[in-house]
Design a protein that fits this description.
This protein is mainly alpha-helical. The chain has helices spanning 17-31, 44-48, 61-87, 89-107, 127-143, 149-153, 166-182, and strands spanning 13-15, 54-56, 123-125, 159-161. Helix 3 (61-87) crosses helix 4 and helix 4 (89-107) runs antiparallel to helix 7.
């Protein structure tokens, strides 16, 4: 049987094969499954937060990450369709607009003050890098500037002493992805 993803050389690190295969098998089952309360057992946000151990000769990380992005999109579409059925279009879009307004309020804060600092002696995300990307996101929300889900997912910021808190920035970027997927 062939591998679902290309593998790295035996001397290079890649994602743990067993972990990836196990997660994808569970995701296939979970896509059509709901728990006792009617909720989905795996969500788009859970897919986005998935991480794998590294091992030599493992699956190529870029290939697996691309598959996870497609899987996240599929789960987000399923969740959106369920919400449409339960809430209706108006309520769903009103909720998405509300989340977008909260994000926008954060991103429109003055440069250097958009997020908490990691601490003077601790590394965080470079504030200028984050502020520049935040300006692009503001343009996306205000005027539909050309920013894609992939741009947000793959945003990279240089480290900086006293920079922005990484978990806080990451949480806002996750929320941006949620909104972008909700209104696709």
């Amino acid at each position: 049987m062939s591998a679902p993803f290309p593998r790295t050389r035996s001397s290079s690190l890649g994602y743990d094969i067993d972990e990836v295969d196990d997660f994808l098998a569970r995701a296939r089952v979970a896509y059509d499954e709901r728990d006792q309360a009617g909720e989905f057992t795996l969500t788009a946000a859970m897919v986005r937060q998935t991480a794998f151990s590294m091992e030599k000769g493992g699956y190529d990380a870029r290939a697996v990450d691309a598959a996870l992005e497609r899987l996240e999109d599929a789960f987000a579409l399923r969740e959106r369709d369920q919400a449409y059925r339960q809430q209706g279009d108006e309520a769903w879009f009103a909720e998405a607009r509300g989340r977008a307004a909260e994000i926008l309020a954060r991103l429109e804060r003055p440069d250097g003050e958009k997020f908490d600092r990691a601490g003077f002696l601790r590394q965080g995300y470079n504030r200028r890098d984050v502020d520049a990307f935040a300006a692009q996101l503001v343009e996306y929300f205000r005027s539909g500037a050309d920013v894609t889900v992939s741009d947000v997912r793959t945003a990279v910021f240089r480290p900086g002493r006293g920079g922005y808190s990484e978990p806080q920035v990451d949480a806002v970027l996750d929320a941006v992805v949620d909104v972008m997927l909700a209104v696709r």
